[in-house]
Every structure is written in C-alpha cells, then in structure tokens.
Amino acid sequence: MGAAEKQTLGFQTEAKQLLHLMIHSLYSNKEIFLRELISNAADAADKLRFLALGDGSLYEGDAELKITVEVDSENKTITITDNGIGMTQEEAIENLGTIAKSGTAQFLKSLTGDQKKDSQLIGQFGVGFYSAFIVSDRVEVFSRKAGLPPEQGVHWESAGEAEFSVEAANRPQRGTSVVLHLKADEQDFADAYRLRGIVKKYADHISLPVLMEKPRFGEEENAQDAAPEYETVNAAKALWTRPRNDISDAEYQEFYKHISHDFSDPLEWSHNKVEGKLEYTSLLYLPKRAPFDLWNRDGARGLKLYVQRIFIMDDAEQFLPLYLRFVKGVVDSNDISLNVSREILQQDPAVESMKSALTKRVLDMLEKLKKKSPEQYQEFWQQFGNVLKEGPSEDFTNKEKVAKLLLFATTHTNTAQQDQTLEDYVGRMKEGQKAIYYIAGDSYNAVRNSPHLEVLRQKGIEVLLLSDRIDEWLMSHLGEFDGKPLQDVTKGELDLSAFDSAEEQEKHQAEDAQAKPLLDRLKAALGERASEVRVTHRLTDSPACLAVGEYDMGAQMRRIMEAAGQKVPDSKPIFEINAAHPLLRKLDQEADEQRFEDLALILFDQACLAEGRQLDDPAQYISKLNRLLLDPNR
Ligand code: ADP
Ligand code: MG
Q1: Nearest CA to 60 among 128, 150, 139?
Q2: 1.10.8.50, 3.40.50.880, 3.30.420.10, 3.40.50.11260: which CATH number matches 389-497?
Q3: Residue whose CA is closest, atom 17 of ligand 1?
Q4: Residue range 521-569, pLDDT digits in tens
Q5: Higher confidence at residue 46 or residue 562?
Q6: CATH homologous superfamily of domain 503-550+559-630?
Q7: Separation CA 325–CA 316 (nearest Å)
Q8: DSSP helix, strand, coil percent of the chain (3-state; round to 5)
Q9: Ligand 1, from 40, 66, 260: best to mutate by most atoms within 8 Å of Cβ?
Q10: Could you tell me the CA-to-CA distances from 494 to 491, 498, 536, 549, 607 in Å, in that order?
C-alpha cells in the first residue's frame, strides 16, 4: 500500500548515472523526449487493452484509448496524458526510480566519457522516460492504475537530480499525465505549432490517436472561456496494417525506434503480409548496432506480438531462432488466440510454421542486403556475424542458407577484414582441389603466420583464416559447403600430392625413404610427448610443426574448453618434420646423443609455440636453448 504522506527517495545509482549522462549527451537531439513519452503512453494503452481482454471492467466505461498533448505557453509546460494502464505508487517508485534492465551497471562502466561516443551508446540502450529531463528542470507524473479507486492515485515529482518524491493523489481519471516544466532555455518547445510538427513526426506510426488542441484563429484567440476543442494530429493507424507503398522510409524508421527503444535508424527492414492457410503480417528490422545485452543470457529478444491488431506481448521469442535474436519487429497474427500465453505459444503448430517462414524471411533479407550493398552488409556482419555463426548448429534446415551469409578472412585477401564468402572461395578453387581449407586459432596474426600455411601459400591454395572463438564449432557443424568438405589444415595428413609435379612427387618419396632412421631417433628422443613423428611436405620454411589426429579436437576448441574448466580427452599431437630443412639435416648428422636430444626437444617446443600452445616446461626449453647457443660446435 502506498503511504499517504509525501516521501522523498533517492534514484538508484544506475538511474542517476544514466540521467546525468543523458542530459549531457543528447543536447543535439532534444526533441526525442516527445517520442519517448508518446511511446510510453502507447505502451500503457497496449497493456490496458490486453488486460481488458480478460476483464472488460478495467475500461471503466471508457474504451476509447488515446493520448493527449497539451501546451501551456504561459506557464511553459507540456503535458502528455494517456488513459492507459496507469501506475500504482509502488510501480511509480519502481519504474521511474530504477532501471530494471539487467546489465545496466556493466553497460554504464563501458561508457568512455567521450560525449559523442557515449550518446550513441545511450541511444542503443534506449533513453526512455528520463529523456524528459533533457528539456525540463522539473517533471511531475500523475497516475492512477486502471481498476483502482480515485484516491489511490500517485503524484511523482523530481528535478532530475539525486531524488524524487511520491505522495498519494486523488485522480478520477485512469492513466498517466506527465507534466514537463521546461528549462529556461528550452521554452521554445512551449509553442503549439512547433510541438504539433514534432508530435506528428514521432506519432504517425502509432495506432492510437494523439490529440492536440485545435488552433484558434482570429477573434477566437481571445475567447478564453470557450472549452478547448481537440483534434487528432497523427495518422492513428497501426503502421504494419498500412500498404507498403503508403509508408515512407521515415515512418518505418520512427516505428523501429518506438518498438526497439533504439536511438539510431535501422539498417534494413522487411514488411510482409501473408495470406492463405495462415494469415499474418510481419515487419522485421535489422538494427545498425548490437544492443548492449546481445550476449546476456536473459537479454531481451523476440518480436512484439499482436493478435488482430491487439498487443499481446513484448519479446515473443517463439517466432525466431536464437541465432536471429538481433532482429526486432512486429508480428500480427489472425490465427493465434487472443488469450494466448508464452507456454501455449511454445506448442502452437501455427507458431512453429510462422517461425520457419519468418526465419527464411530474415535470411532472405540478409542475402538481399549482401548483394545490394556489401558495405552495409559488412556493417551488419561486424555487429552480428558471431551471432549468425550459431546458425548452423541451431538450425539444420537452413544450414546452407546461413553458410552463404558467412564472411571470412582468407589468405586470398590477406587482411583481417572478414569479407569473403564461401561462394567466393569456391569460385577460386584450384583445379583438382576437393576441399575447402581452413585454419583456426586465437588471433588473426597467429593463424596468418602459422607454418601450416607455408606450402598452401606456395601452391596458391586459398585457406580461410578463422580467429573467432566460435569458428571451430561453426566449422564442425557446417561440415561441408556446396558438396565440398571443410578441412582443417592442421588436422590429419594434408595430402596435396594432386598439386605436385611428377618431379616433386619423386623428390618427396626419396625424402620419405631417407628420413626413416631420423624418425626413429626422434621418436625415441620425444618419448611420450608426441603420438607420432612423420615427414610432412606442408612446410617450406619451418623445420617442423604439430598436427592433430584426424578425429581429435582442434587446438582452438581444446583451449576454449580447457579455459571453461571442461575436461578434454587427452590426445597427443603429431610431430611433423620438414626433412629437407637444414636444421633437420644437421640433426640427422648429429652423433652426440645429448645434443641430438636437446635439439629435438627444442624443435618440438618451437612447434608448440608456433601453434600458440603453452610449453609443459618452459624453464627446460630455455636452458636447452641456452646450452645450444653456447655450444662452440654449433
Ligand atoms: P521502457 O519504455 O523501455 O520500459 P522507460 O524509461 O521509457 O523504459 O519507462 C520505464 C517504465 O515506466 C515503463 O516500462 C513503464 O512501466 C513505466 N511507464 C512510463 N510511462 C508510463 C505511462 N505513461 N503509463 C504507465 N507506465 C509508464
Ligand atoms: Mg519507453
């Protein structure tokens, strides 16, 4: 129960920080306060309409939901009123004094203090109610929750600093009024004509009528006693129900900001009406920037669900797979029951088939964007590429479609930029090449400079350079592309004999035969360290490298699992030598067993280092290396 007397409370620390930042970083786009407050009023109406489906008495005889914007040019105030769900005193304290979004504290820590950058970050966070303080030095909220008696209203007030106050208030009318007392230098906003333009801009896509006082002309201007007449200033029709040709880009963009709480324009959208067995309309958006909670397990995701134009719920996750969780939008269905719940959605076969259609819709939108504008697609990829990479493991049906959307760095372009598709790669494959080659590691530089690439480079065979944590996992789920297997160049024996000349093949066979005694000595020297020692022809400059058994876990995946505290099956690497390398030749000639062993172990440890592995015994490596450096016979 709310207290009758006035209480003064402090804002939550995060709320205080956000408030402060907002006031100081959004000065170049002040008018967005109207968008945010109208958006909240529309949400409140949506919520009431939904609850009233189950309990019509909540309308209290007034089912005509609307928003009113009033200006008092004398007192310099703007009032935004709705007859939506309203708030109790507790809700006002909770909703207007704290920020419930998980991860807010972390997000605020990531801010740099650079106002230009930070204002963009705040934008992606969603500015919300506090944007009222961009133009006001005092904000009052009067509210009464639908279904409660008039005396259970609340009056909330704050100057936007550390504190706010709440007290009980008598409020016969249901819903909320937000009263903005404009700052001295923002009083230009208290101009009905100017305000009307702004309201129109931000409210046209909202399905609710937004009313403003009719302008008075001539003598009427002095007719102070005449009751004000109101008129609807927006189109007041749910945007997605309108035909595509009628909707301007600006309207699509504003609607996106309303539903996503994002501050920037979307990158792309797709608006479709489906008729037939299932009837529904969808409006799907690709954001420009990843939201701060993209990687939070409980971050908001999903679409806004409407049933026959009535808002049902936010964040309906059942309409898109997890790897498309960055998509924002609306789905309005005629085939779902109005009193649907999240649990029912999960089992509804209509929802399942809408999900697969919407998934294809998004993948097609991405494919189109990639073709139409590689630059924009690159922007998308940098923000969401790693989410999309979860696709092949989550969604087997669309594996091939997702595969076509992936971008990679490769030895062909030789830059860290991920901008090559698998189709690009396949188009450049050499005659006789059967597999798509890749190498995965912890960083772009580590993979780019890996000894495993030496002979591939020499033969002009392209290799995908993978350095995102998810990459090896992705490759194992993709398995193949366009009928060509994806092959890790560090796994198994890399057989490139198809690309060798007859001469080279002969030379390699001779090397193999000659190396037998050396291999035996190396095996003895390395003991348990390697599962096998063999000659390789994949190296040109390096003396040796490590390979992984064909069916063993790759080095990158192994490190990730170990870092996560998982037990990984023990598997020893294969030590591969470049028998033609001068160091190996020298080793072969080495008669002193101690020196042979030192050198063998050093080569092995170096191969570990080149792989980015940790040495078992770094001190031993150093002392052996130093002994060798001091050796007068070297
Ligand atoms: P968001 O809209 O992203 O939730 P806001 O900062 O805009 O964040 O609003 C915070 C919360 O305050 C809302 O979620 C809602 O619970 C409450 N609220 C704001 N305005 C209204 C309103 N006009 N009617 C009812 N509740 C409101
Ligand atoms: Mg809001």
Answers
A1: 150
A2: 3.40.50.11260
A3: 95
A4: 999 999 999 999 999 998 989 999 999 888 888 877 777 777 778 887 7
A5: 46
A6: Heat shock protein 90, C-terminal domain (1.20.120.790)
A7: 11
A8: 45, 20, 35
A9: 40
A10: 8, 11, 8, 11, 17
Is it the case that residue 27 has pLDDT exceeding 90? no
Q: Are 328 and 362 in contact (CB under 8 A)?
A: no
pLDDT band at 55 (very low <50, low <70, confident <90, very high): very high
Tell me the domain boundaries of the chain: 6-236, 241-371, 389-497, 503-550+559-630
The letter for the amino acid at 322 is: L
Residues 6 or more apart from 404 whose CB is under 8 A from it? Answer: 367, 421, 422, 423
The mean pLDDT value for 215-225 works out to 63
Regarding the beta carbon of 142 and ligand 1, being less than 6 Å apart is answered: no
Q: Is the pLDDT of residue 102 over 90?
A: no
Q: What CATH architecture is 241-371?
A: 2-Layer Sandwich (3.30)
Residue 126 Cα to ligand 2 midpoint, Å, equals 8
Closest CA to 555 of 609, 601, 514: 609
- Considering only the top CATH level, what class is 6-236? alpha beta
On the question of pLDDT at 48 being above 70, the answer is yes
**Cα–Cα distance for residue pair 20/164, rounded to 1 Å:** 14
Q: Is 545:480 a contact under the CB 8 Å cutoff? A: no
Reported confidence tier of residue 614, pLDDT bands at 50, 70, 90: confident
Q: Which of 91, 99, 129, 148 to mutate to test the pocket of ligand 1 (most atoms within 8 A of CB)?
A: 129
As a whole number of angstroms, the distance between CA 144 and CA 125 comes to: 28
Is 175 within 8 Å of 82 (Cβ atoms)?
yes
Q: Is the pLDDT of residue 501 over 90?
A: no
- For ligand 2, the distance from its centroid to the CA atom of residue 129, given in whole angstroms, is 6
Cβ atoms of residues 545 and 452 within 8 Å: yes
Give pLDDT, residue 380.
Answer: 97
Average pLDDT, rounded, for the chain: 90
- The finding on whether 262 has its CB within 6 A of some atom of ligand 1 is no
Q: Using the predicted structure, report yes or no on whether residue 120 has a pLDDT greater than 60.
A: yes
Residue whose Cα lies nearest atom 5 of ligand 1: it is 128
Structure tokens at 8: 């003064």
